[in-house]
UniProtKB/TrEMBL annotation:
It is found in: Cell membrane. It is a multi-pass membrane protein. Its EC number is 2.3.1.269. This is Apolipoprotein N-acyltransferase. It comes from Candidatus Accumulibacter aalborgensis. GO terms for cellular component: plasma membrane.
Length: 498
């Protein structure tokens, strides 16, 4: 129940303080398992139950993609979703087991240990088996949370660490406040909640002050942009008879909304590049040249026997392209040994080749644009590979696979964190939502309503410079977490386990 309730901290609800209370509740449950008889297995089960509740409630949209749009039988899709969430729950389970095993006396030491183990578990989940960092605690703390100020310094996992630490501190404040020993003056002096309350204020105040720091500077002239949202339903998108409807939709939106940079969503044109009429591409190029600008569209590209999920630019900057480098397992490539699983689903374009990891930013409309496609923006260290050279971030997505679920809003919140980490604006063009412009401080400046057809027109700036996270990535917070684990467990007394 604590894990499921924790989903309320994430978009679209966005009650960010719930994450502190939810993790504080988990901290309390794990505290109860420590003592003279270390119940490591119970600690693992408690944390696994928390994680399972979090993921079942928060990523249930996996079922939608497999069953509703993937054509998989409902029972099998439900089983696959449950198993997926169970595997994800192994990471918090390991953190819980280690906490019970390593915890030593001292409320602050335990809070630091809990936060560090939780952070390392989330980081591990972000790269193991190609990675699934969705619902990392730090994402719930994107703007307007005061903890968002830590993002440019330590990245999303540093924000996770501060949120988990707050959970432990809040538990300690409540525990001391309600303690029966505090009924006497002597007991109150011993159990006074002032110290954990002060530590809580320091964590919150530090984040709020850092949020006022500007790590990057605007560069170049303001740039007019048009982000197109075609709102083509996933269940009809790939039908041959709908092909020319899609072409007409995006041509009309681009023609009616001139801008120096026009962005179409991921696989906006439902075909391979060589299947699109040449005169249509010429027409898009002419639309871009009206403003002496560029148009960026998502399309699949075939190269010999290899296929890429790509973004192609047309316009003043000439033809440039970016190929998606971090593919979605089962959605864009078939992991070894799982061909039988994919045979029970009907997922088009599910056998792509990953693009090169060293692709430079595209030069579009006078800016160096770091392009990322779909859930690539969930991987902060991959995004910063194009920085500080890139002055603008652009994401092309198609989350129509997940229908009217939590996924589109959660994905936008992830984009907010990337802007905070990098000090760059993020432009998101999606098929069905959420198409949005995100400022460098993580605020969503404007967004189109989901499941509507239209263009989001606005003015943005490129930014230069580098935040500490751009320079160092995740390593500082990982090293800090490892050192804190070693420090907070160093006084452990060996005791027999039950």
């Amino acid at each position: 129940m604590l894990g499921a309730a924790g989903v309320l901290a994430f978009a679209p609800v966005g009650w960010f303080a719930v994450n502190w209370l939810s993790l504080g509740g988990l901290f309390a449950l794990l505290q109860a398992e420590t003592g003279t008889a270390r119940r490591v297995r119970r600690g693992a089960l408690v944390a696994a139950a928390y994680g399972f509740g979090l993921f079942v409630a928060g990523v249930s949209w996996v079922y939608v993609s497999l069953s509703v749009f993937g054509g998989m039988p409902a029972l099998l899709a439900g089983l696959a979703t449950v198993l997926f969430c169970a595997v994800l729950a192994l990471f918090p389970a390991l953190a819980g087991a280690l906490f019970v095993r390593l915890a030593t006396p001292g409320w602050f030491r335990r809070a630091l240990l809990f936060a560090s183990l939780w952070t390392l578990a989330e980081w591990s989940r972000g790269w193991a088996f190609t990675g699934f960092p969705w619902l990392a605690a730090g994402y719930s703390q994107a703007t307007p949370s005061p903890l968002a100020g830590y993002a440019p310094l330590l990245g999303v996992f540093g924000v996770s660490w501060s949120s988990a630490l707050l959970g432990g501190l809040i538990f300690e404040v409540v525990r001391r406040w309600l303690s029966t020993e505090a009924c006497s003056i002597r007991g109150w002096l011993r159990w006074c909640p002032a110290l954990p309350l002060l530590a809580t204020a320091v964590v919150l105040g530090g984040g709020a002050l850092l949020h006022e720091v500007r790590w990057t500077q605007a560069t170049g002239e303001p740039l007019s942009v048009a982000l197109l949202q075609g709102n083509v339903a996933q269940d009809i998108k790939w039908r041959p008879e709908r092909f020319f409807d899609s072409l007409r939709t995006y041509h009309r939106l681009a023609a009616e909304n001139p801008a120096r940079l026009t962005v179409l969503p991921e696989t906006a044109l439902p075909a391979f590049l060589d299947q699109v009429p040449g005169e249509y591409l010429d027409a898009l190029q002419q639309l871009a040249l009206r403003q002496n600008g560029d148009l960026l569209l998502g399309i699949a590209v075939a190269d010999s026997r290899q296929y890429y999920n790509a973004a192609l630019s047309l316009g003043a900057g000439g033809q440039q392209h970016y190929s998606k480098r971090h593919l979605v397992p089962f959605g864009e490539f078939v992991p070894a040994g799982f061909a039988w699983f994919m045979a029970m689903a009907n997922i088009p374009m599910s056998d792509f080749t990953a693009g090169s990891p060293g692709q430079p930013p595209l030069r579009l409309a006078g800016q160096n644009v770091a392009v990322n496609i779909c859930y690539e923006d969930a991987f902060g260290e991959e995004i910063i590979a194009a920085l500080p050279a890139a002055t603008l971030l652009v994401n092309l997505s198609n989350v129509a696979w997940f229908g009217d679920s939590l996924a589109p809003a959660q994905h936008l919140q992830i984009a907010q964190m990337r802007s905070l980490e990098t000090g760059r604006m993020m432009l998101r063009a999606t098929n069905t939502g959420m198409t949005a412009i995100v400022d460098i401080d993580g605020r969503v400046l404007s967004a189109l309503p989901p499941f509507t057809r239209g263009a989001l027109v606005g003015e943005v700036r490129g930014y230069s410079g580098a935040t500490p996270y751009v320079r160092w990535g995740n390593w500082p917070v990982m090293v800090l977490a490892a050192l804190l684990i070693a420090f907070t467990s160093s006084r452990q007394t060996m005791v027999p386990r039950a």
